[in-house]
């Protein structure tokens, strides 16, 4: 059994979507970051960076923070969603692109554009421009492909599962997915998966999966 400590955010949903896709038994424990629950001493023992999500895998005794590490751990443990052979490293490369680029930059757009509009036009412009550049990079990567990594037209992998929940906040980012047609098709392809629909609502329902 896996314990997942999480909240209704893109980083949290990456892991709940993956656990739903794997079909493994897990318990979701809400850590309401709007109430500061991520700073509770008990949570700190599992997640020393005070951020969700984190997991405890009682089968192996491993506890882990950081979604990139968690997704690689689960992919290796269950031997799924990480392409093999020559395709493995490009999948990890795009996972790291999400971790180092999409997550931090889109997160800044949410902070400045969605929640603090008018406080810093410089930051709004800087992070919105960078987010749109990243959308352009993803759109180019998806030209002729169904998924971010994998041979041929690609295969659904942790690179997609890591990136999709951030793109699902396109309205917060004031991004029109019609400007990125390959991203839009990819987004809809993944949004239709039952495991994604379920994982999106962990640890509780907020809204339906946004549809462009
Ligand atoms: N790099 C971390 C980022 C985790 C992260 O930023 N989580 C946010 C929610 S999406 C959080 O816990 N924020 C709480 C806070 O800022 O205090 C990961 O991928 O797990």
Please describe what this structure looks like:
Helices cover 51% and strands 8% of the residues. With 212 residues, it is of the alpha+beta class. The protein folds into two domains: 79 residues, 3-Layer(aba) Sandwich (Glutaredoxin), CATH 3.40.30; 109 residues, Glutathione S-transferase Yfyf (Class Pi), Chain A, domain 2 (Up-down Bundle). The protein has a four-stranded mixed sheet, with helices on one face. Strand 3 and strand 4 form a beta hairpin. The radius of gyration is 17 Å and the shape is globular.
What features would you highlight for this structure?
alpha+beta; globular; Glutaredoxin; 2 domains; four-stranded mixed beta sheet; binds glutathione; 212 residues; Glutathione S-transferase Yfyf (Class Pi), Chain A, domain 2; 8 helices; 4 strands
Ordered list of secondary-structure elements with their pairings:
Elements: E1 2-6, H1 10-22, E2 26-30, H2 41-46, E3 54-57, E4 62-65, H3 67-78, H4 88-115, H5 121-141, H6 158-167, H7 181-191, H8 194-200
Parallel strand pairs: 1-2
Antiparallel strand pairs: 1-3, 3-4
Helix pairs in contact: 1-3, 1-6, 1-8, 4-5, 4-6
The structure holds glutathione (GSH).
